[in-house]
Amino acid sequence: MNGKNHEILTVKEMRDILKIRANNAYNLIHSREFPVLKIGNIYRIPSEPFYAWLNHRSENAATF
């Protein structure tokens, strides 16, 4: 391994991080912009791309 963290998140873990409901989580998973792996009928979220996506979204969020 090259020393990078290759953690994989479950949908529940992703929901807990974002503090969203299951319906919203699955809407995200099915969007084309969200990093997700589908293995059979199971969805997993690679942590590095997930946190990059989250940082990008928060940088572009409107501020009040």
Count of discrete domains: 1
Write down the secondary-structure element order: EHHEEH
> Which structural class fits the helix and strand makeup?
alpha+beta
How large is the radius of gyration? 13 Å
- Fraction of residues in H or I helices: 40-55%
Strand content: 15-25%
| Total helical segments | 3
Instruction: Choose one word for the global shape.
Output: globular
Main sheet, how many strands, which sense, barrel? 3 strands, antiparallel
How many E strands? Answer: 3
Instruction: Please mark out the parts with pLDDT under 50 across 5 or more consecutive residues, or reply none.
Output: none
Strand order of the largest sheet: 1-3-2
Gap between N and C termini: 43 Å
Question: Can you walk through the features of this model?
Answer:
The chain has 64 residues and is of the alpha+beta class. The protein has one domain (8-59). The chain has 3 helices and 3 strands, in the order βααββα. It has helices at residues 11-18, 22-29, 47-59, and strands at residues 8-9, 37-39, 42-46. It has a 3-stranded antiparallel β-sheet with strand order 1-3-2. A hairpin with a 2-residue loop joins β2 (37-39) and β3. It is globular. The model has no long low-confidence stretch (mean pLDDT 87).
